[in-house]
Design a protein that fits this description.
371 residues, mainly alpha, two-stranded antiparallel sheet, 56% helix
Amino acid sequence: VILDSNGNEPVYDDEGNGTMPRLFAGSRRVALELSTRDWDLAFRAERETSMPIVRLRKGGGVLDQILLSRAQGAFLGHLTGSALGTLFSEGSEKAVNHKLDIASLKSAALQGRRTLGQIGATGELAVATARSLIDLASDPGSLRRVYSNWVDSSPLAPDRAIEAAMKGQPLADSLSASGLARVTSISLWAHAADPMVVAEATRTNAALTHSSSITGDAASVLAITLQALVEGRDASAAIEIAHSFARRSGLSPEIIEAVVASMSPVGNSREPGEPPNAVKALRSALFHLANARSFHEAVEAAIDSSPYSDVLPAIVGSVLGARFGREGISHHLRSLVLSCRPMEGLVAHPRPPTYWATDAMAMAEALLTAR
């Protein structure tokens, strides 16, 4: 049915003009429910919020639909993994089953007092990086200001390594997996470049917050893997390309061993209760890429093995999203992320609009053509 703001079917005057400014379509029950809500408040909140929205430049669309699906899958997979990792993090009840159906998601949200679809720190860093790349390209000074602003914005899960780096006191042992948080955005932006350019771009970006060369190596291998997947390579070919790159480039032994270990059945081993560092996160992501039968299976496993952070679910979500494409992520998970606006007064932890993911589809497409 179609109903007006009074819950009645719409009527028109003699000149064919409608008498109500808003109409609501759907089943009668849904349309009636929608017609009773305070839409003036909702639209006023939108007007009063300065929302950065990525729009494609004229003629800037991507014609290759397979490329677009894989790129959007990588970006949405990253953000969805971040949102789910945050939802099922340590703050949620341990009894919650990490199944990605609506009932389990609602249960986790209620028990952990969290918001469905709101991305965590790893997702916000990817979004902030994407916006900067689209607007200002890869200028390190601009990106450093982006990360400094993020630290100052009181994120849901502050990162010790990034905070220290922004204060000019980088941690000498900065091997935290958060050093991989921006790889998805950088990889999509540089996807058409030579692999060495992609690797160097991610390494340079990682060094802004993580001084360890091993973290930079992990970021570069992850980027090479994503580039291969977005270009259409299958999982085994992408891992082989990453392995060859790591050996040819003389990367650290830890990184080469991580790539090799990901090919074995025990490649996803992890010490209980220990958040993964960059090396272990890379190994786990490649392991799931090689072995998971679906996006959802891999992200569920990543959440189970990393209950303290959204980093691993986001990174696993990125590579599996690139492997299976946009449609490999269920519609309800995509919708949760794309419709979440964590405004003041509506969520427990409101966030500035620059970190929202409502325009993630356009962001992913714009990254492909921004360079």
